[in-house]
Amino acid sequence: MLRVTSLNVNGIRAAFRKGLPDWLQAQQPHIVCMQEIKISAADLTDDMRHPGSYEGHFHHAQKKGYSGVGIYLNPRAQAVTEGMECEEFDAEGRILRADWEKLSVISAYLPSGSSGDERQNAKYRFLDHFEQWIKDLMKEHRDTGREFIICGDWNIAHHEADLKNWKGNLKNSGFLPEERAWMSKVLGELSWVDVYRSLHPDTTDECYTWWSNRGQAWAKNVGWRIDYQIATPGIAATARHASIYKEERFSDHAPLTIDYDWTL
Questions:
Q1: Mean pLDDT throughout 34-40?
Q2: For the chain, percent of residues with pLDDT exceeding 90
């Protein structure tokens, strides 16, 4: 089995203080995709670069203490590349791709628009670029047989079942009709697969991966499912088990882990 974990760490230093390395040692995912690492390359410790038997790779934002993605790998990849050839958003450290012979795994951190209209407009610009980029990935899949898994915080809850208070969020970033329609296009016309939903089509309260720090959202399980593993159909069909780990908290997100019947 190939075990893949996605986690928005909301600061890699904080997640390490809260016990993330011990959890990784216990769970032993082969690939760990992290988002919002919020650290500069110079501030990474050796333990953060190579916890246990992992080899770490990172795409840092130019702005200090902001955004950024990382991947821990065991076994190591044949190649790791940063960005999606979009100057505006590559400067924010949002995309990191690891390649093996027949599989690529991507850590992606899609923007949030919750701080206001300016960032919501930036989010829409990102979605336009990202859509074309993942169209090209799907073409690569069809031309070569290469499979892809895009892990990450997509900052969009797709359906009403994906968040507790959907009626109260119909006009809020993350659940806007335009965002949800874009997600439907990705999973429909563009042929990508929401792997968690392929295994658990009907879950509601159990599916959440993020909880606001306000209003006792965690205690009351007022959550959102905004963390995904979105895959090409071939490897998606090999998914055997998905879990969202909530026994410990490493950030305001929970790790999403999926086991695939796949060998690197």
A1: 98
A2: 100
SS3 content of the chain, % helix, strand, coil (to 5): 30, 25, 45
Mean pLDDT along residues 90-104 = 98
Cα 170 vs. chain centroid, distance in angstroms?
Answer: 23
Cβ burial 124-136 (10 Å sphere, 16+ → b, else e): eebbebbeebbee
Residue 160 CB contacts under 8 Å (≥ 6 apart), including other chains: 166
Which one, of 249, 260, 244, lies nearest residue 208 by Cα? 244
Which pLDDT score is estimated for 93? 98
Question: Which residues are annotated as catalytic?
Answer: 153
> In this predicted structure, what is the pLDDT of residue 103?
98
For 95, the 3-state DSSP assignment is: strand
pLDDT at 178: 98
Asked if 248 and 23 touch (Cβ cutoff 8 Å), the reply is: yes
Interstrand relation of 147-153 and 55-59 (parallel, antiparallel or unpaired): unpaired
Alpha-carbon distance 29 to 108, whole Å?
18
Residue with tokens 């075990």: 3
Supply the mean pLDDT for the chain. 98
Type of residue found at 245:
Y
The 10s digit of each residue's pLDDT in 220-236 is 999 999 999 999 999 99
CA proximity to 152, closest of 111, 122, 102, 199? 111
Distances (CA, A) of 192 to 81, 202, 231, 235: 21, 19, 6, 11
